[in-house]
Amino acid sequence: MTMRFPFLILPxxxxxCATTAPPPQAPDAYRADTFxxxxxxxxxxxxxxxxxxxxxxREGAELLQKQLQKQLSAAGYKVTxxxxxxxxxxxxQEAAAVGGVLDAEGHFKDKEYREALGNLLRKTCExxxxxxxxxxxxxxxxxxxxxxQVEWDGRRIAAAEPSTRSAKAQRSYGISAEVAxxxxxxxxxxxxxxxxxxxxxxxxxxxxEFVNKPMTWSDADLSAGLRIALQPLFATPVLAPTPxxxxxxxxxGK
Length: 254
What we know:
The protein has helices at residues 5-19, 58-74, 84-97, 110-128, 204-208, 219-229, 231-234, and strands at 30-31, 43-46, 78-81, 132-146, 149-152, 155-158, 170-182, 188-197. Strand 5 and strand 6 (155-158) form a beta hairpin. The chain is built from 7 helices and 8 strands; from the N terminus they run H-E-E-H-E-H-H-E-E-E-E-E-H-H-H. Helix 2 crosses helix 6 and helix 3 (84-97) packs across helix 4. By secondary structure, it is of the alpha+beta class.
């Protein structure tokens, strides 16, 4: 028995390591090669919460904005929160200055839109004296159900109910915090995601049967997702930089 003991304990250790591996981070996270996080004490400006195509996310977006301000202040940053009406008024001025950003069919004109947005971001940062602009929102993101756990964007949460369709990994979705850092010149510094919570209808069974259930927002879940999404500001990222398009954040009210 004494000779076998070391060989018996090794598989147990390997199994423990496998089950405690951290959930994978967002595969499409981006960090510019030249980005250096502003030091504590720097001024950061928060853009107003963006409109969402899902009404269920609107209440959560407002809570997310409050959590973002709280976490940044706790980290030592000076935080300025833009008023939505002022931001929208400034956007309308910049859009008019480039001759309008919509074509006859109501679609964005790419060149004019990017020019107006770039001017808006630069002037907003200059007026508030910020070292960086931050744009946050809640988005629906792909997830997987694996061995009774739902994994996505750095988060792992136990599934409320076991799947009735298959014991293998299944595709699903979760709600994540998306945070984009924008430099004073309007360029994208980073974009990252952090899983916040599962909607009640996260399982594929419910999705395929079009089950609509009310959502309950949790400050703890939103806070956890933001901590993951804000890692580029607080820690060295583990993901290598990948190419990303220029920021295309639609101003609030658009």
